[in-house]
Every structure is written in C-alpha cells, then in structure tokens.
C-alpha cells in the first residue's frame, strides 16, 4: 500500500506528461465553459425580464447580477462540475499513469461504454446533490461555531470525492460487480479530503481533479498488488 503523500508526490511529478496536460486543458476549459454558458443564460433571462418589467438600467443590473451569481456558483459548485466533467476524461489520466508505472495492469483493462460512463457520472452527481442537501440542516445548526459548517461539508464531500476517484480507476479493472474494490475506507476518505481542500483554492482547483485521479490510480494499483513498488 502506498501512502497518500507518496501518491500525491508521484502525481505531481507526472503533471508535465503531455497526456496529463491535454486532460488538464480539456477539463479546465470545459468546466469554465459550462459556467460561462450558465452565466450567459442567466444574463439573457434576467435582462429580458427586467426589460419587460420596465426597469431602468436593465443591461447594467442584469450584467452585474449575472456576474455575481456566476462567481459565487463557480466558488461553491466548481468541485461538482469539475468532477462531473473529469468522469469523461479520467480514462486518459488513468491510462497515462498506468502506462508509466503499472504497464502490467494493461491486461485487466476493460473498455467502459459511453452509456455506462454517462450513467456513472449522473449517479455521482445525484449522490453529491443529495448528500450535500442532507448535510445542509446540520451545517446550518453549526454555522454559529465558525468552522462547524465547513467541517460538515468537508467530511461529506471527502467521502464522496474519495469514492468517485477510486471508482474512476477501479471500474476500468473490475472483473465483475461482486468483486470487492481495493483501497480501504480511511485512505479513500483521506484522498477525497485532500482533493476537496485543494478544490477550495483558486487556480489550484483547476489541477486538483487531475492530481486526485492520478493519486487514486497509484493507490488503487498499490492496494491491488499489496507489495512495495518502486
């Protein structure tokens, strides 16, 4: 089993890999494009509403509100959207890490159909929305503590993100649904918690999902081997 710091160190060293850079650009641009499109839709809808209501300075007001909402939405929802987008490019990250460090694992790789990828991404998105909605009342009660609410959301999303990152790797190698996934619960939560923390840092959050997927690849394969790997 590899430690989390060692897995992150290996992932950081591979950020210069052309395949990793390509995924980084695709996920970052796609994620940002989603927020830009949503902001544009909000801007157009709000502008048309204000015009029909006869509100003065409709363009300025709608532009300001749309920009403000887009920024706040990006801050709070970036993790959800980035990981959803990464689902469709994760295979490139996993393959790049496996090619360099675990070439012997190639014989267990299976092609995941697009329908299964979309299903996995949608289920992941649904789990995220429901789990965070369920945590909202608890976080609200702890809001007065200052850090209580943030700790609740961190814990919930650490569990979710750890599972998502593990599954991005594991589902490519699982022989059947009954097979138990490697990588223990504690390591999974620690991985997810580290990535959630990185996703809260501006600009770093653009590479956090990639680092997380690469680190998960190392941790899953080392857990499968259960022997030291150079």
How much of the sequence is in beta strands? under 5%
Taken from the alpha-carbon principal axes, the silhouette is globular
Helix content: over 70%
> Spans with pLDDT under 50 lasting ≥5 residues?
none
Measure the end-to-end span: 12 Å
Give an overview in words:
The radius of gyration is 20 Å and the shape is globular. It is mainly α. The model has no long low-confidence stretch (mean pLDDT 83). Helices cover 76% and strands 0% of the residues. The chain has one domain (4-225). It has helices at residues 4-13, 18-52, 58-86, 90-101, 114-141, 148-170, 185-199, 204-225. The chain crosses the membrane at residues 32-51, 63-90, 134-162, 189-216. It is found in: Membrane. This is EI24 domain-containing protein.
């Amino acid at each position: 089993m590899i430690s989390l710091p060692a897995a992150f160190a290996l992932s950081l060293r591979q950020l210069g890999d052309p395949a990793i850079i390509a995924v980084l650009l695709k996920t970052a641009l796609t994620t940002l494009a989603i927020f830009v499109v949503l902001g544009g839709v909000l801007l157009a809808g709000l502008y048309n509403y204000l015009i029909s209501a006869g509100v003065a300075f409709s363009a300025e007001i709608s532009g300001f509100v749309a920009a403000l909402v887009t920024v706040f939405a990006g801050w709070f929802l970036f993790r959800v959207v980035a990981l959803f987008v990464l689902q469709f490019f994760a295979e490139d990250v996993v393959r790049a890490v496996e090619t360099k460090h675990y070439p012997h694992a190639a014989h267990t790789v299976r092609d995941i159909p697009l329908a299964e990828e979309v299903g996995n991404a949608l289920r992941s998105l649904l789990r995220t929305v429901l789990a965070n909605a369920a945590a909202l009342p608890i976080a609200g009660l702890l809001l007065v503590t200052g850090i209580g609410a943030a700790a609740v959301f961190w814990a919930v999303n650490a569990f979710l993100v750890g599972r998502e990152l593990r599954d991005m790797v594991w589902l490519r190698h699982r022989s059947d649904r009954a097979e138990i996934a490697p990588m223990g619960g504690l390591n999974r939560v620690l991985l997810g918690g580290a990535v959630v923390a990185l996703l809260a840092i501006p600009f770093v959050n653009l590479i956090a999902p990639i680092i997380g997927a690469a680190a998960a690849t190392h941790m899953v394969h080392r857990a499968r081997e259960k022997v030291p790997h150079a």
